[in-house]
């Protein structure tokens, strides 16, 4: 037995209910409370799914507004088990997540914490790689911030580093620490380039230590060629200052 007017079902209370056990107006489902609910056991208005609470939910077990998924809490979630707004994936918490198990906003990957992460298991902002902590990293296992133009690398810490196992700023080699080193590997210092294993400032070559060396296995300042130590030596195997011939020690030989 119902109570109201124009009810065509059974056990309804209200007006224009065509289902059963409804309370409200124009409910066509079963066990609904509210307005224009066509699903079952919903509370609110214009819910077409089941066990929804809110407005215009078409999924099941949702709480909020315009949820089309399942067991979501919030606004316009199309996935399942989401909490937030405009989540199209599943088990997300936040805003606009289309991936899986994300916390934050606009994450397209999975198991991210932060915003705009397209990769997976990232913490931070705009990471397209995996297992990164920071921002703009497209490699893996990075900590820090990558370059907007070349955001690649792995196991880096720092800013703008695109190599491997590096720390510092804008390094592109591997196992590098310092600032703007572009060698192949094992650079430390500032603006070193070449085949690697350099330490110091503005060295171009290999196995250099000091400032402005351009050869191989030189130690000091502005040495060129090989096996020199000192300042300004341009021969080979020299030690001292400004030697131009080979195997010299002293000054201006």
UniProtKB/TrEMBL annotation:
GO terms for biological process: response to host immune response. InterPro entries: Mycobac_pentapep (IPR002989). It comes from the Bacteria. Pfam families: Pentapeptide_2 (PF01469). This is Pentapeptide repeats family protein. It comes from Mycobacterium kansasii. The lineage of its organism: Bacteria, Bacillati, Actinomycetota, Actinomycetes, Mycobacteriales.
